[in-house]
Design goal:
mainly alpha, Amino acid/polyamine transporter I
C-alpha cells in the first residue's frame, strides 16, 4: 500500500490542469448535476411519483453523497490523484487503462446525451424548423473551445454566470407564486410510501443524473486545498438537489401531480407560466437562453474531464490532444445515438441509469474498499515485522 502511495506521489502533478478554489468546486459540481436533470427528467420522475417528485430530487441527492465521499477520500489517500491515478496505484497499469477508458467513455456519453437534450430544447423553444445537426455542431464547437482552455477558465466563466442563474431562478419562482396551490403537493410522501418500486426507480433516475458529480474525482489535483474537496463536492450535490427540489415543487404546485408528466420539457412550461401584471409575458426565451449558457459550460466540463481521463489512462502529460477528437465523438454520438426526444427519454430512464450509477457510485466505493483493505493488510504486515 505504501509503495502505491509513493508511486501516486511521483505521478502527481504530471498533467497541468490549472488551479481552482473550493467555491469553484461547489459551482462546478452544481453545474454538472443540476443541468443533467432540469431539461428532460422532471417529466418521467413526476410520472412515477406524482406530487412527490420534489422529494425524489432530494432523496436522489442523498443517494449520490456516498459516491462523492468515496471519490474524494480515495484521491486524498493517494496523494491527491484523480480516479485514474488511484486505479493505477491500486491495480497497476492495467487498472489505470481500464478505469481511464471507462470514465472517458462515460463522460463522452453523458456529454452526448446532454448535448442532444440541449439541442432538442433549443429547437423546440426557438427554431423548430432548423435542422438539429446545426445546433449540435454549434454546441460541439463551443464545448471544444471551452475544454481546450481548461478547468480554470470554465470555473471562472461559471462564477460570472451563476449569479445570473440564481437571480433568474429566484425571479421565476417568485413570479409563479400566485399560481401555487399547496394542496397540489399533498399528501406529502404518499406515493413514495405506497408505491415503493416506482419510488425507488424515480430516486435512481435522479441519482444517475446528480451522480455526474463524479467529475469531482478529476478536480482534486487542481484544488488549492484538496482536503476541502470532500465538503465542497457534497455541498455542490446538495445545492443541485435543492435547486431541483424547489423548481419541481413549484411545477407540481402549479400544474398538479399528473400534468407535468405529460410535458416534454416541463421546465419550459414553468418558464411560460411567468407573468407579471398581465403585461410582462413570454419571458421563457430569456430564461431558456440562460439555461443554455450553463449547458454550454457543462458540455465543456464533461469534454474536458473525458480528455483528462483518457490522457491519464495513456499517461500523457497533456489532455489537449484528446479534446478535438473527443468533441467530434461527442457530437456524433449526440446525433446518431437516438432518433428523437422520445427515444432520448427512454434511454435516460432505462439502461443508462444503471450504467451511470455503476461508475458514479459502485466503482468508487469498490476502489475505496479495496484501498482500505490494502491499507489494513499493510498495517498488519508492518506489525508482524516489528
Amino acid at each position: 500500500m505504501e509503495s502505491g502511495v509513493r508511486k501516486a506521489e511521483e505521478e502527481a502533478g504530471e498533467m497541468e490542469l490549472g488551479r481552482i478554489g473550493g467555491r469553484q468546486v461547489i459551482l462546478l459540481v452544481w453545474l454538472v448535476s443540476f443541468t443533467s436533470l432540469v431539461v428532460l427528467l422532471p417529466a418521467p420522475v413526476a410520472g412515477l411519483v406524482q406530487q412527490d417528485a420534489w422529494l425524489a430530487m432530494l432523496l436522489g441527492a442523498a443517494v449520490v453523497l456516498p459516491g462523492v465521499w468515496a471519490i474524494v477520500a480515495l484521491g486524498l489517500r493517494f496523494a491527491n490523484q484523480d480516479l485514474v491515478g488511484c486505479a493505477g496505484a491500486l491495480a497497476g497499469g492495467g487498472g489505470r487503462v481500464l478505469v481511464g477508458f471507462l470514465y472517458a467513455a462515460f463522460f463522452l456519453l453523458a456529454g452526448a446525451l446532454a448535448m442532444r437534450s440541449g439541442a432538442e430544447l433549443f429547437a423546440t423553444a426557438f427554431m423548430p424548423e432548423t435542422p438539429l445537426l446545426v445546433f449540435l455542431l454549434l454546441m460541439g464547437a463551443v464545448a471544444v473551445v471551452g475544454a481546450w482552455y481548461g478547468l480554470e477558465v470554465i470555473a471562472r466563466s461559471l462564477e460570472i454566470v451563476f449569479p445570473l442563474v440564481l437571480a433568474v431562478s429566484a425571479f421565476q419562482v417568485l413570479t409563479v407564486l400566485p399560481g401555487v396551490e399547496l394542496a397540489q403537493v399533498q399528501p406529502v410522501g404518499f406515493t413514495l410510501l405506497h408505491r415503493p418500486l416506482a419510488a425507488a426507480r424515480a430516486i435512481l433516475i435522479v441519482a444517475a443524473g446528480l451522480g455526474e458529480a463524479a467529475v469531482v474525482g478529476f478536480f482534486l489535483p487542481a484544488l488549492y486545498d484538496p482536503r476541502a474537496g470532500l465538503r465542497e463536492g457534497m455541498l455542490g450535490v446538495a445545492l443541485a438537489g435543492l435547486f431541483l427540489g424547489v423548481i419541481i415543487f413549484a411545477m407540481v404546485a402549479i400544474f398538479g401531480a399528473w400534468e407535468p408528466a405529460t410535458f416534454t420539457f416541463p421546465a419550459v412550461e414553468l418558464a411560460r407560466a411567468v407573468r407579471i401584471a398581465q403585461f410582462v409575458e413570454r419571458v421563457e426565451s430569456v430564461i431558456i437562453s440562460i439555461w443554455l449558457i450553463i449547458g454550454f459550460l457543462k458540455l465543456a466540463l464533461l469534454l474536458h474531464t473525458a480528455a483528462v481521463a483518457l490522457a491519464g489512462a495513456l499517461q500523457r502529460s497533456s489532455y489537449r490532444p484528446f479534446v478535438l477528437p473527443g468533441g467530434v465523438a461527442m457530437t456524433a454520438l449526440a446525433f446518431f445515438l437516438v432518433k428523437n426526444v422520445t427515444e432520448l427519454i427512454r434511454l435516460l430512464t432505462g439502461w443508462w441509469v444503471y450504467a451511470a450509477l455503476g461508475l458514479e457510485l459502485a466503482l468508487p466505493l469498490l476502489l475505496w474498499g479495496w484501498a482500505s483493505l490494502q491499507r489494513r493488510e499493510g498495517r498488519r504486515a508492518g506489525g508482524r515485522k516489528a
